[in-house]
Amino acid sequence: MTEPTTDHSQQNGINGTHEHSERNAWSSPGPAAFDFRSMPFHSTTLSNPPQLTSFPPTSGDVVTTPTPSMLRAIQTCTLLDDVFAEDPTTTHLERTLSSLTGHASALLVLSGTMGNQLAIRTHMTQPPHSLLCDARSHIAGWEAGGCSSLTGAFPILVTPANGHHLTLSDVKAHISLPSPSSKAGNEILNIHRAPTTLICLENTLNGSILPLSSAREISQWAHSQDPPIKMHLDGARLWEAVSALAAATTTTSDDSAESAPPSAAETLTSILRDYCACFDSVSLCFSKGLCAPIGSILTSPSPQFIRRARHVRKSLGGGVRQAGVIAAPALVAVQETFLGGKLKGSHEVARRVAGMWEDRGGKLLGQEGEVVETNMCWFDMEGSGVEEGEEEWVEAGVREGVKLAGGRVVCHVQVGEEGVRRLGRVMDAVLKGKNRKPREEEEEEDVKEQAKGIREEGEAME
Prior knowledge:
Elements: H1 68-75, H2 88-101, E1 105-109, H3 112-123, E2 129-134, H4 138-141, H5 146-149, E3 153-158, H6 168-174, E4 179-180, E5 187-188, E6 196-202, H7 212-223, E7 230-234, H8 238-252, H9 264-276, E8 281-285, E9 296-300, H10 303-315, H11 324-338, H12 343-359, E10 363-364, E11 376-380, H13 389-399, E12 408-410, H14 417-431, H15 441-460
Parallel strand pairs: 2-3, 2-6, 6-7, 7-8
Antiparallel strand pairs: 1-9, 4-5, 8-9, 10-11, 11-12
Helix pairs in contact: 1-11, 2-11, 3-10, 8-9, 12-14, 13-14, 13-15
């Protein structure tokens, strides 16, 4: 990857500068190389601030920028009508993702939110009904209440007892099921409650991996109910979980085995299919860590489900005519970033960044041994003695040309060495009180204004 310029004045948009330039914006990551933002934390809206489970899920890998190879793919894609399912590039993407996930069918959608809401609306057809999900999930708090407004579903929000991921015990303790009646062989439903017809899980969630064993256990139990309870996975960052597990599998594999070990792409595909096999629908995002400019995919083992989802997609304004310009870079993103094994590099950077913070005396949030599972680090500002907390952290970032927001730092494949070095200097400033060069009062006010703008941008990030 070409190392981005270190001249702060040349970073288009990094500190609020949006001057026109003849430079091809597709030629390098640009501002994304210095953007570690996460959604800022607000103690006024969330309880128990020190707890990792209280932080919101929105994060900064949405700032990744498309690559030159994606632009070339757009230039050579087909331009037929996907509303009529006639575009070869789009159809090729959908068939590729069906094969990759082990599902029968797939549907291109415009965003992760649209993928989740299409799945919910397609699964849940007749109120009264409820869905069960993690209280921290994107579906619960970051999709504008779509499950209620679009589907009429009551969300049952569950906080995991283990503080990390939902388990079958959590599900059983909160789900709304029929109760045995006094008459043998019959069941009655408490009419005061909305029966749960869908369980929604998320992987990764706040950078944490949902264990495959838990997904399987919940899925087997849900599908054994009468009638079966459907399962949906918000897998916007499932790529990250799969990549982390594949890296661990490679590290622990038996080199003495007689048969040839699977390739990295085969290992990634196998783990991805294992997760997707647990669910009746899965949404996966192309535009976060994979760097595509737009788009997600909704997959399902049921072709009938995807046919209905296509109908619902049209009703939500998601039908795109020349969708090839969206599908082409998405396919490149999957092939180059996911199957190409690049995501594990961002996980290594995240672990390195966490170590840098701790080496300077900072403290991390999270359970022991699970602090950095994928590409996200959680900094305990209060516990680390950062007196002004988020405000001081963001302002220090502005001085170094780095975008930050809140205590969660998100790493992605376009973060380079220069970005990490600058982040280290930000850590020095807030943790060690490193002497700063004297600044004119007017310049310092400008820093504060830019920091305020960055925090406001973070509030608008998906």
